[in-house]
Each structure stands twice: as C-alpha cells, then as structure tokens.
Amino acid sequence: MRPANGYFFEDYAVGQAFDHAVPRTITQGDCALYQALTGSRNPLHCSEPFAQLLGYPAMPVDDLLVFHIAFGKTVPDISWNAVANLGYADCRFVRPVFIGDTLRAQTTILGLKPNSSGKSGVVYVRSSAYNQRDELVLTWVRWVMVHRRAAAGGAAPGEGCTAFADSVDAGALRKPLKAAAGTTVARATGSDRFWEDYAADAEIRHPAGMTLDETDHTLATKLYQNTARVHFDLKHMQSSRFGKRLVYGGQVISICRALSFDGLENALSILAINGGSHLNPTFAGDTLYAVSRVLGKWPVDAHHGALRLALFGYKNVDPASAEFNDNGEAQKVLSLDYTVLMPRRGG
Amino acid sequence: MRPANGYFFEDYAVGQAFDHAVPRTITQGDCALYQALTGSRNPLHCSEPFAQLLGYPAMPVDDLLVFHIAFGKTVPDISWNAVANLGYADCRFVRPVFIGDTLRAQTTILGLKPNSSGKSGVVYVRSSAYNQRDELVLTWVRWVMVHRRAAAGGAAPGEGCTAFADSVDAGALRKPLKAAAGTTVARATGSDRFWEDYAADAEIRHPAGMTLDETDHTLATKLYQNTARVHFDLKHMQSSRFGKRLVYGGQVISICRALSFDGLENALSILAINGGSHLNPTFAGDTLYAVSRVLGKWPVDAHHGALRLALFGYKNVDPASAEFNDNGEAQKVLSLDYTVLMPRRGG
Amino acid sequence: MRPANGYFFEDYAVGQAFDHAVPRTITQGDCALYQALTGSRNPLHCSEPFAQLLGYPAMPVDDLLVFHIAFGKTVPDISWNAVANLGYADCRFVRPVFIGDTLRAQTTILGLKPNSSGKSGVVYVRSSAYNQRDELVLTWVRWVMVHRRAAAGGAAPGEGCTAFADSVDAGALRKPLKAAAGTTVARATGSDRFWEDYAADAEIRHPAGMTLDETDHTLATKLYQNTARVHFDLKHMQSSRFGKRLVYGGQVISICRALSFDGLENALSILAINGGSHLNPTFAGDTLYAVSRVLGKWPVDAHHGALRLALFGYKNVDPASAEFNDNGEAQKVLSLDYTVLMPRRGG
Fold first, then answer.
1. Among all residues of chain A, which has the CA nearest to that of B6?
2. Interface with chain C: mutation pick from A234, A245, A248, highest number of C CBs within 10 Å
3. pLDDT digits (tens, 9 = 90+) for B238-288
4. CB-based contact, A253 to chain B, within 8 Å
5. How far apart are CA B271 and CA B134, in angstroms?
6. What is the pTM of this model?
7. Do B144 and B84 form a contact (C-beta atoms < 8 A)?
C-alpha cells in the first residue's frame, strides 16, 4: 500500500503496475462544472440533439474532462512527490464516455531515469482509463520528475524512457461514428470552415483571452480529484520558489482548447495528444491566450478528415497585440501537439 | 459567416436575421450551478414535488437562467464589439423550460441608429429562443451600442428603434398552470404574503446583501457561454477606463432577484421584463442590495394575480442604513421593470 | 410568520416548532459541486457501482452535504440573528439520501438561556430533516447564541439546555446495508487499513492542506441556501470585529473531513456527530489541515465496525511542521467528535 507520504523515485520499478483508487461516475454536474470552468462551447458536449445527429446515443463527455478525471486518479500513486510534469506522448481517446459511465485508471512504470543531481529522477509511465464494462477509453504516456527519498547518483535512461513515437499513428485513431450534413454542423458550431479550409502550416490567432482566478483552478482540480499539493496548499507554496499556488497544467490545456473554438469551431473531437509540455507555470491572475498551427492533415473517410494541430498557450500577452512578437515566446506556457476529427465540407 | 473580429455597427442591416450557434441542452448541473452562483431559494426551481403541485411535470428551469443562456448565444453575433448594453423591452417568458430541453436562439435586426460621435451606433434587435420542438420559449428586444469599423456621421433613429411599448401587454403574458392551496405554497416559500398583500407603490427594502467575487461572475458567464470580452480578459480590461473586468449585467439581475426573495417569496414566476437598464458598472468586490417597488397589479384568474415590479439594485450601500438616502441614487446599478405571477391568498 | 428582520432571542419559547421553508430536491449538480468545493474522494459518493456493491440502490448523497442543506433551511428561522453557532449534539444520520430525494426540515426549541450580558441568549434546538416520503433522514441538536431585540437580564439554563448525552448511543446508530469483500473496498478506496487497524488513541496527521478562497465558501453556502449574513455581505462585515466575511463553519467541517480521507480512506459513512465546536473563525486565504484521533471503537456486525473519532481542524499550521507543537492549539478551528462506519478486514 502507498506510504503515507507517497511514493518517491526509488520506490518505483520498471514493470510495476498500479490499480488507482476511487472509481468515478461522471454526472451531469461534472459536465456543467467543466463548462463553467472553461467556457467551452463545443456543441458535441452541450447539445444532446447535435450529438445524436453525429451518431452518439447521448452527449459524450468532453474529451479533456475524461483526461483530467483519469489523470487525477494517477496522481496519488505517481506524482504525489513530483517536481514537475515534463511531457506526454501517445495519448489516444479510444472510446467516447457518457454521463453515467464510471471510470477507473491503471498505470505501469515504463522507465526510470535517475537525474544527475541525485535529488530526483524521471519516471516514465503508461496510464489507461477504463469504463464500467472494462473497455479502454483513454491511454497515455507521461514522464514526470519525482523527488528521491535520499540522494543518489544519476544514470542513463533505459529503453522504457525513449521509445515514444513523435505522433500517434493515424491507423490507431478512433473512427468517426456518423456524419451530419455540413449545414447542420455549421448551424450548431457557427462556422462553415471545414477540414478542406485548413492549410498545412496555417496559423490561427484565437481572438479571446481568459483570466484565471484562484477559485477557478482549485475548483477544477478538486472536481478532478487531483490531489497534487502545489495546486491547493498556499501555506506550503509560500515557501516554494513560486511563493504561491500553481495552476494545474491540465486546466491550462482546457482553457486554451476552449479559446481555440473561435477559429476551430468544427474541431469536434480530440483523437490523440501526440505530445505536449508546460513551458512556464501559470498562476491565478494570469490571462491566457491561444494560437493554433496546422501541423498536418489527412482524410479519414468521405465525410471526415483529421487535423494535427499545435496549440500554443501564452500568458499576459495578446497574440493580436504588437508586443506579442517581442514577448510571446517568453510568455508561452503550453505547447500541445494533438489530432482532431473534423467534418469535411460535403460531410 | 461571422468575421474573425466580429460584426461592427456598419455590418448590420435592418431585417437581417441570425441563427446563433451552439444549441444547449440544460442539465441538472446547470441548475445547481445557477443556485450556487445566486443563492436562489425559489422552491419552484429547487423542489420537484412543489413544482408538480403547481401543475408542472418537473421543476422548471429558473426563468433568468433561461434568459442568460439564450442571451449568451446572441453575444458572438450581436454584442461581440459592444460598447454597452443599453436597454431591454418586451421580454416575454412564453413557455417553461425543463432539464433536458435544448435551447437555440435567433435574432433579427430591428433598427440602427448611428451615433453623432461617429464612432459607434445603437443596434436594436429582437431575439427569440426555441426549444428542441421549435416552440418559442422566450423573446426579447434589446438595444446595444456597438463600435464602428470606421468613423462616420450620425443619423436620426428609424422606426425600428422606437416602436417599443412601455410594458408587455397583460394579454400577451403566459397563463398559469394549476393553483396550489395557499397553505401549501406558504409552507414551501415560508411566506403567507400573497398577491392581495402587495399594495401599489409599496416599497420593499430586501434585508440581505451579497458580495460578488471575481470567480462568481466569470463562472456564471462561462456557464452561459457568453463570450463578451469585458467579463473575462483582465489584461485587455486593464487598459480600459475601468481598469478591471466588468460583471455581466445579467448576473446583477440574478443576484438582485435572488435577494428579493426575502419580501417577495411568492413571486414564483417571471412573466415578462418590461424594460430595464444597467445604471452603473459592477465589479468584483462590490456588495449588492435590492429594493422592490410595486408598479401595478391585476388579477389573472381566481387563483393568481400579476404584480408589475421595479427591482432596483445598489452597490455598497445598504438600503437599511442611514447613508442610503444620501448615496443610494449614485450607487444604483440596476433598474428593472418586470412582471411576476403570484398566487392569491385563496389560491 | 417570520419578522422581516428575523427572530431575536426573546421571540422564542420552549416547545415552539418551525416548519422551515424551501423544500429542496437534490440533483447530480449538487453532488458534483460538493465534490468540486471539497475535493472529496469517498467512492461511496462518487462511484455508482461501488455504492451498489455495498447494497445501495444508487450513490447516496454525501452525509455532510445532506447536513448542510438541512442546516441551511433552519438558518432563516433560527440563526438569522445569531452571534455564533456554539455547539452540536446527538446528530444522527438515520437514512441515506439519494439524488432525486427532496428534503425539508423542522425545528423545535428545546431550551433558552438568557446571557448575563443582557444582549443575547443561547437557544437550544432540535432540528430534523425528512425526505419526500416523510421519513426521517437526519436529526441534530445545536445551540446558538442569538441577539436580543432589547437588553434584559440573564438567567440560569433550564433543563432543555443541558440534557445532551456526551455521545450518541451505539444502539441508536444506523445499521449497515451489505458488506463488500475487503479487497473490493480496498481497490476503490486505495487503502487496506480496516477497522481492526485503528487502535484507540491513535492519532493520524493527515498529509494534505487546502486553502480556501472567497468564492469557495460563498458558492458552498449559497448552494446550501444558507442565508447567514456573515458569510455573504462584505460591506456589513467590514464594520464587524472581523473586518471581513466569515467562512461557514460547516464548510470547514467538510474540508477537514475531505482532508482526512488520506489516512481514513475506509471511513465510508458518518453515523453520528456526537458533538462539536468551532474554536476560531476561518477566513478566505486560510489553509486548513486536519488531524484525527481515535476516541473509541466497537464491532457492529461480522463485517463492519464503528470508530468514534475526533477530527481537529487547524489553520495555517501544518501538523507535519515543527511549528505545530508550538502554534497548533492556538490555530485550532474545529473540534468534531463523530462516529463512522468502517468495513472490517474480513468484511
């Protein structure tokens, strides 16, 4: 069983597996809160009739809400003593999740890389979430720097630390259900920009910004049952180098994804997160902005295409402002490489 | 399709119609959040058995939550580039909305009045919300000052800018469903003050006050999918004349309505908003108080009567305090003229 | 009917009974908000399959959410003019409450003790909550200091002010439904520490802390429809001795209970609150920590045992830190004596 003060780097072994605690039934309340916390406007997650037009039996739960709830379950066993969450790979959204479904999560240790500082190491893990029928709904790799109990020497990373593809293979992505007519989709999303309209390398500077306050991120993180101390305990954080609470990086992803609706209105489902990293910490009071870049695109079927997108998040510098060219890079908080499903014009 | 930076005054034409994006299914979560954000205690919206006693198949959704969600849909097309929301007229709550219903909204441009400043103009619109059966649930007129792309001369208002009645005609109001016994109603609301007990011109100084914090109004406004920049983007607002984010005026209405429960406990349903205006901006940290005045009353049937009420909202000055007489007027933030349905004593 | 400015001490009489206003149907939204506001991880309240394994037809509503909602109903009639909530006794959680149930509350005045100051008195009450089938779900005694309208002399307490047992009798506690296998429970809660593993007098210093912000406690208190002015009205509180809003003591209980999950993961249900008091006020910005002590234990049946626990809450001093020994006592905000049901190892 988990030690009272959590696992440290030297407690892990490659191949070790964890069944994480606290299964979680997703309710209408979770989805409403997610909307209030992000400002999401994706009609797939807020209109039952629209979801049914696309072949879903009911509104599916927002992909990122599923991610955050599943991720939260892994925190007590994997990142309770984390220094920082370093990266993600091979994250696949395998099956839709519906209100009433119950999620649980498992993790296997893939690799361990002791840092040369001797004070910490990087733990590479594969986590997976399942519904109440034991069907896989989501799987992802992440690597996280974790404190050691006692100082020790560094070492080179083993194979489990490096074997991640640059992106999720297109063949491994979830298949679309049913296509709705383009006009039907456009009426719901407010946009008649479809898959054909996004050119490779195109950049979209999303027009809106959103300021995060303290309660915004702590409510979210408590909803996700994520217990990482850095988000909640001001007294503890006052003696950290930040001097204040850190916003959960996943909430930054959610806000940037919601901001990207203006310009990517028809990017209805996330199929995969190919990779991603948090480049700077975000704090209460910061205003987030988002920019997307089209990294690639391919047809999926006669009615749908995939877009591989880079989603960049910035704090306190508006991509529409003159200062963005000078300060944008320094204010970048997020770089996320992900793949979405989008209807084709004729769809 | 909507320009990336939204519509400006000169983009509108009288008679132009908009089908707004993002249909929205209302859930138990939305209603619980509305309660947590307003402190509402109207039993019609929080007690299923009470709603059924009044002839509803289930708890109807709070009238103002319906208004805010429908209003939010119009923002991207109508008030994305607004200077200020100036007024409302002929707002009728036509049909109850239930959990599980899906709302969409449409707007027609009624009139356009170029301002003499040359920098903006006033857009007069009729917006309407429909449920998933295409039944009208709510309709209202509002006028909003919108920026111009380029300066131009002013002009006199056309007919579409002026043809609004002072109040909604009594014959146009929604009819009550079923009456419950007065004692049944009084037990649920805690008040045996019924329609007969409110004299014309009577003033009610509601005893409670409520302070709004930053997350209170931003959560609400995100829940309503209202994207007006002034509520969310602190970085942007720091360079405005306010220097900070503005509270969505609709949330001020909701808070004042909830505060008015103490004194108007049996004002169960809003039938119409005859008119209204926001007189001063409200910011996080402000404490709101409410005063009601009875503007008129008429019987509806043997069991119900209508009250036409003025609802005044004040910030940072308690109507029960001595300073209210000196400072109340200057601190007034809201003047709303609306009509409610109330059971009669014998009801 | 209740006076517009509420009841004062001299308005009450021993034996007087109140049917409190505003019946309340509990929804999925209430439960999700409770989770977001507390960070609760008890699987009994967030996993439908787990609740069913324990013999419940569905997830029961968190015991403390039931308490807060029922308590909130009593505020307008009992503690609108309260100086302070002094203590609790004989609080029994009689029946589980489910989503869709509608709660109402009643209170009887047990005793009245005029304070020697002449400005206030202590009101002793028994409150009870019922579901829509008029089944008792919760009952408790509390005593609360209430302002007088006019000064008057003090007096000795009558019998109704003193006749409270030190703890709820074991025979009066709710019986468990069905037992699940220990491994099943441990998988859900993440802990294989069962009833046998808690020794009398054992102390558990729960590892996590949680900072409360202004919106955290006001959202909670509005969700509970608790209208006590001290939590909401900053303008009013600025002229109090605190200079700011007070956090509802019940929310402090909820946060400390949620923090106690790490170390008491299998304390699935609260059977009774034997007594409790709020020792210091809590304000926005305070970070709460929790310590539990085992006060007693007894077997309930072959599969379950009861633990009587003291739950202590502290603000701004971490029980794991050196300063706790010096400052803990002064920073104590809560002392709650309660009884939980816990599976036995073989369960």
1. A207
2. A234
3. 999 999 999 999 999 999 999 999 999 999 999 999 999 999 999 999 999
4. no
5. 20
6. 0.97
7. yes
